[in-house]
Amino acid sequence: MRYVDRIIDHISTPIGRYKPYFNPSSGTMSPLVQIASAAVHRPRINQPSIKPLSMEQSPDPTSNLSVLIQQAVDSARAFLKANARCLKSITNTGVCIEENFAQLLMQEVVDDMSLVDVKRSPRLYNFFKKGGELTTAIFPCDLDTTSVGLRVFGPQDSQTLEAIMNQMLEHRDENGIVQVYFDKSRQRTDPVVCLNVLTLFYKYGRGSDLNETLQYAYGVLRNRGYTYGTRYYQTAEVFLYFAVIFTEESGSEDIRKKWTPLLRVRLMELILTGSKSVDPLSTAIRILLSTKLELASDPVDVYDLLRMRNKNGSWTGGWFYKYGSSGILIENAGFTTAIALKALTTLKNMT
Question: How far apart are CA 163 and CA 139, in angstroms?
Fold first, then answer.
C-alpha cells in the first residue's frame, strides 16, 4: 500500500503546490499516477443499469482532450435547452415520477429557471409535486427538500425562516439528531438529510442549534458510514457531494479546517481503492469535487465520463436517491447532465 499512500499524499495537497497529475490539454498523467493505478486494481461497484458503451461511442483517442471536453459541454448545454422543463425523474422500475427535489438540485447547479420545472414555496417543500407516488398518497413535507428549497430560492422573509427552523428543531430524536419528515409518526434518520439541514442552519447563523447533528454527520464522514450509501441516497459520492456543499456554505473557518482535509482523503480513497461507483453521476461528482477540493481530477474518471455520454448530449443511468422502504432507485437525466456539465466546465476552466 505504500504506492497508494504516496499518491494520496501527492494529490490530497492543493493544486497550487503541485503540478496536476492529469492535464486535460495534453491528456498526460504523471508516472506516479500510473504506478498507483497498477498498484490499486480492484473491482469497482457497478450500478445495475449501466451498460458498457460500444467503441463507436468512445472518445477518439487521437483527439485533443480539451476539444473532446468542449464538445461534450456544448452538446450537454444543447440537450438541457432542448428539453427544458421536461426532464422528469424515473425509477429503476420504469415509473416516471413528478417530484421537486431533482429540479431544485438542478437549479442550484445550472442557475437557470428556464430549464427547470419547480416553483418557490411560501413555506415548506414536499418531495412530490402532486402527492405521493409509489408510496402513501398523502405524503408529508420533509426537512431535506425544504432545506434545499430554502437554499436555492431563499426564504419568503426572515420571520417565516425563523418559524421554519424552529419547526425543524421540533423534529429531532432523543439524541438530538434531526429527522427526515415533518411527521413525528415517521421517525427516519439519514446523514445526507442532516448535512442539508446543517447547511441551512449554518448559512443563517443558527448552526449552534444543531451541535448533536453536526457531531453525528462528522462521525459518519470520519468512520466511513456512507460507503454503501445511506437510507435515501444510493452512493458514497452523494454523501461527499453534500458534505462539500455544507463545508462551503457553512461560513465557518473551524468547519472548513476540520472537514476539508478529511474530505480530500475520503475522495481519494474512493478513487484509488476501487470502491467508487462507475455510473455517470458518481463519476461527474468525483471530478467536480476534485476541483472544489483543489485536487487534480482522476484521468480515468474524465475519460469514463466522456465515454458514457449519450449521442443526444445527455448522461443517464446515475441512480441518485431511493425509496427508503422498498429500495426503488430514482434518477434524473437533467440533474445528471447538469452535474456532468458543471464538472467538465470547471475542469476545462482550470487548465
Answer: 21
In this structure, which amino acid lies at residue 104?
A: L
337, 314 Cβ separation under 8 angstroms: yes
Please provide the DSSP assignment of 194-220 as one string: HHHHHHHHHHTT-GGGGHHHHHHHHHH
Stretch (H or E) spanning 244:
helix 236-249
Compute the half-sphere exposure of residue 251: CA atoms within 13 Å on the CB side of its CA.
Answer: 11
For residue 323, the one-letter residue type is Y
342 sits in the region (left: phi over 0; alpha: psi -120 to 50; else beta) called: alpha
Cα(285)–Cα(103) distance, integer angstroms: 17
- Residue 173 contacts residue 184 (beta carbons within 8 Å): no
The DSSP code for 129 is: S
Tell me what the mean pLDDT of segment 99-112 comes to: 98
End-to-end CA distance of the chain: 31
- The label of the residue with cell 431535506 reads 144
Cα separation of 188 and 295, whole Å?
35
For 173, phi and psi rounded to 5 degrees? Answer: -80, -175
C-beta neighbour count of 249 within 10 angstroms: 15
Q: Which pLDDT band, with edges at 50, 70 and 90, does 331 fall under?
A: very high
d(CA 227, CA 281): 16
> Which are the contacts of 282, defined by CB distance < 8 A and separation ≥ 6?
47, 235, 237, 238, 276, 318
Contact 91, 134 (CB under 8 A): yes
Residue pLDDT, tens place only, 37-95: 433 333 333 433 434 343 335 566 546 889 999 999 999 999 999 999 999 999 999 99
Other Cβ atoms closer than 10 A to 155? 20
Q: Are the CB atoms for 335 and 148 separated by under 8 Å?
A: no
